[in-house]
Structure formats: C-alpha cells, structure tokens
Design brief:
Layout (H helix, E strand, L loop, with lengths): L9 E2 L5 E4 L6 E3 L5 H8 L6 E4 L6 E5 L3 E5 L2 H14 L2 H7 E6 L5 E5 L4 E4 L8 H10 L6 E2 L4 E2 L7 E6 L6 E6 L2 H14 L2 H36 L8
Antiparallel strand pairs: 1-2, 2-3, 4-5, 5-6, 7-8, 8-9, 10-12, 11-12, 12-13
Helix pairs in contact: 2-3
Length: about 240
C-alpha cells in the first residue's frame, strides 16, 4: 500500500499502527494493535477512524451511524462526561463526535461532524501555546473545526500538528510545533512537493486513485444488485 493513498495513520503507544487506503478502503494494521480497536475495523460495520491514547489499550473508534466506541482512563472519561453534558447529553454527543485526539496526560481535543470542536487541557497544558492556538480558532465566528490527521504529542505538551478548517469556504490552515529533527524533515518534504515534478506526480496519482475508487464503487453497486436479484427477486414480489 503506497503511503500517498493512505488516510491518516493512527499510531499506538508502542508504535503499532492502523491505516486505511483512501481508494480501495482496505485496512492495514500492525498485529500488535490493541485487539479491541482492531475488532472495530474487522467487524461489520467497520470503524471509520480510530485514535489512540498515550497508554497502550486506550483508544476511540468512530463507527458508522453516529456511534463511537472506546476505552480510556478514568480522568479521560470524567472530562468526556463534562463535554457530553455541555453539548446536550450522550445521544447528541454520539451523533456529533468525529474523533478524539489524545495528548499528554488527560489533554484531549473533541472533533465534531457538524463543525467546531472543544478541548480539555490538564494542568501542564494550561496556558500553553497549544491552548492559545486552539482558543484563537475556537473563538472565531463561526468557529473553525479541527480536522482528522491532526495530532498532539503524548509526551511533550509543546509539540503538535493541527489542521483547522474554515466552515465558510473549507480553507485549511495548518499549525505545528515539532522537534527539530521532524521540523527539518517536514521542511525538506515541503520543498520537494513544491517542485513541478512532484506536482505532476501528485496529479497523476490522484487521477489513478479516482479511477480505482470509481471502479470499486461500480463493483460494489454491481455486487449489491446481484445480491438483490438472488435474495430479493422482484418477480416474486419481495423487496
């Protein structure tokens, strides 16, 4: 599976990963990933998105049909209940939740499907540059959303990579503060992607991916049609 076709890669505390191919919808994962989290991807229906906490075994999986599943420490659950109450209760929260980004300690960002976000910072992150950045976008009118693919460092509150989306025009603003080595690699990657050769390669890949995605969709529709003919034959009046 090529890295350029992957949706955001979710990495657990020990480096185990889960990723989904954006075009084929195939899930790839490390066998060390927490079994409960993997079961959400291999089951039916399959999870859309998963994030992991700083402790092995902690996760949040977003399921189809406005549902979620997860396992967290007591302090995380305590703050989650506060957010639930603030948005109108567990049912409203479940329908709205688009993912939880776990940071160091009990710091969390709650992303919502309908736009906007909220967060909780523990004592170490209070007053940090991260908190000031989130307040900036949260207090805009209308509030921006935090997008999937964002990440918080789980061992240093100073490090983060966040994608904010403007709900009015869908523009994206990215902010990051990374360790020196990662910052250097990111700068090199940005320089490479700015070259004409890289831009053409990206365009070519996107076109191939769109063709593959279209073919996958057509195959699924055809398969569903065949299933309907086998199990729901209209000549017998079954629908």
């Amino acid at each position: 599976m090529k890295s350029s076709s992957l949706t955001p890669i979710s990495i657990e505390a020990d480096g185990a990963f889960v990723a989904r191919d954006a075009y084929s919808n195939q899930v790839e994962y490390d066998t060390r990933v927490t079994a409960n989290a993997i079961s959400k991807f291999t089951g039916t229906p399959s999870a859309e998105y998963v994030t992991f906490g700083a402790k092995k075994g902690n996760y949040c999986a977003i399921m189809p049909g406005a549902a979620w599943s997860g396992y967290m420490d007591n302090e995380n659950i305590k703050q989650l209940r506060v957010v639930e109450a603030g948005v109108g209760g567990p049912d409203v929260f479940s329908r709205a939740l688009d993912g939880i980004i776990f940071g160091k300690g009990s710091t969390m960002i709650f992303m919502f499907r309908v736009g906007g976000f909220t967060y909780y910072t523990d004592k170490e992150a209070e007053g940090s540059q991260l908190e000031k950045l989130m307040d900036d976008y949260l207090n805009r009118q209308p509030p921006w959303s935090v997008e999937r693919g964002s990440s918080l460092c789980q061992w240093n509150v100073s490090y983060y990579f966040l994608k904010f989306k403007n709900p009015q025009n869908n523009s994206i603003m990215m902010h990051w503060n990374l360790p020196d080595g990662m910052s250097k690699q990111l700068a090199e990657l940005k320089a490479t992607l700015a070259t004409p050769e890289a831009q053409q390669a990206i365009a070519n890949h996107g076109q191939r991916g769109m063709i593959q995605a279209t073919n996958n969709f057509a195959l699924a529709v055809h398969g569903n049609s065949l299933m309907n003919q086998v199990f729901y034959p209209r000549q017998y009046g079954w629908y």
